[in-house]
Write a structure and sequence with these properties.
With 448 residues, the chain is an alpha/beta fold. The chain contains 20 helices and twelve strands. It has helices spanning 25-28, 56-59, 70-73, 85-93, 136-139, 141-145, 164-171, 202-208, 213-222, 230-233, 274-277, 286-302, 315-318, 321-333, 341-349, 362-367, 380-388, 409-417, 429-432, 443-447, and strands spanning 4-7, 32-36, 76-78, 154-161, 189-196, 200-201, 239-241, 247-252, 265-271, 306-312, 371-375, 392-396. The chain binds zinc ion (ZN). Zinc ion binds at residues 273, 276, 284, 286. Residues 264-398 form the GTP cyclohydrolase II domain. Residues 31-223 form the GTP cyclohydrolase N-terminal domain. GO terms for molecular function: GTP binding; GTP cyclohydrolase II activity.
Length: 448
Amino acid sequence: MTMLEADIPPKPPSDDITADSPTSPNLRYSKHIVLTTYPGQSGIDPVPLEWGAPDAKSRGPVVVSRSGPLLKRRNAMGAHGGSYSIYNALAIAAGDLEPDFRPDFRNSEPTFNFPSQPAWANKEKIVSMDPYGHDIVNQFSDLLNAGWDIRPTMAITRANMKLSEIGEAVRDGKLNVDGSIVVDSSGEVRVTKVAVEPVWYLPGVADRFGVDEATLRRTLFEHTGGSYPELITRPDLKVFLPPIGGLTVYIFGPPERVSDENVKLALRIHDECNGSDVFQSDICTCRPYLAFGIEEAIREAQNGGSGVVIYFRKEGRALGEVIKYLVYNARKRGGDTADKYFTRTENIAGVRDMRFQALMPDILHWLGIKKIDRMLSMSNMKHDAIVQSGIQIVERVPIPEEMIPSDSRVEIDAKINAGYFTTGRNYTMEELAEVRGRGWEKWEDVTH
Ligand SMILES: [Zn+2]
């Protein structure tokens, strides 16, 4: 079988502006476009990649680049950078970046060496991130020195952060200045951060969702507009770097305590809600719960334990902001009551939630977490996914009543009715019909 190729269409006669331009695609790429590859095809020789192998070197590097000879050696599909892979392509198209650019990783190594965990070598415990993604430069220096394009998919750094709610908690005497975690009376906090890009081991991902691998691959292929044909033509490639957002771990206190079973761990899993998290919209409880989670994480660390907040880029229950705002409009125009809360989302998105927490526990296993003493979340889906993955949850801590914005009662009461954990009361559907959000009255005064 020969490589499936397509000739670049001839240039239109009028196209003389870019013909001799240094950014002309014909000068940057070979004359033939390789649309896909096949196993056993001449020259196709993927670098061995054994997911779940006992260490990074025997596991092998994730090679996803199509650059030069790597096209035949790659062992993974997709591209580095998650959704930002498209911006990377734009930078190359614009001539700002050479297609064969190789990063200089000097001094980029982690600020903390997380101790290796048994889960790193367990192909069932970690299926949605590369457990060695932070250590690429160290583990595969020989390949990097030889000019191979392999890249870290994780990065570990440290920072200071300042949140108005934490500043208030310090001023109100609810949090102490300890000089190490909370460094001063303004509420400045020291934090260790771990950024993670998604790297999917497809058999493991399929398994989590209870589907067969072929169904997962076909569905991913079809519903990315056919963007990744090797999902179909290369069943031997098992790893896919999907074009989606990743996650960030925020660790308060000494990072070595996170995996220490002998100290208490307070943990919040938070899914992105930009409108509330950053811009402090009051239609939901996201920012207040996030701030509460950070405060409790800091407190646990100050008490000799560990505090962790993990932020997942799954905007609007992974439906995105366009769908989210369409749902807001449908809610507000249709009489915004808690009994109809999920129906409004289902009408527009077809489902009430696309976050599918099945992959979420991977990062907990990567960190070496074996039990969570205080789980700062009411989500039954997050709870169930964590417990089913073998991590114990000792206590669940709901958001305090006084932190719930009045317009967000529609959301939180509907979620409680649907199974969210609460230590307060659970409303009936009849009662939910009485829980009403703010309407758009008086908005005419603002907009006209
Ligand atoms: Zn929200």
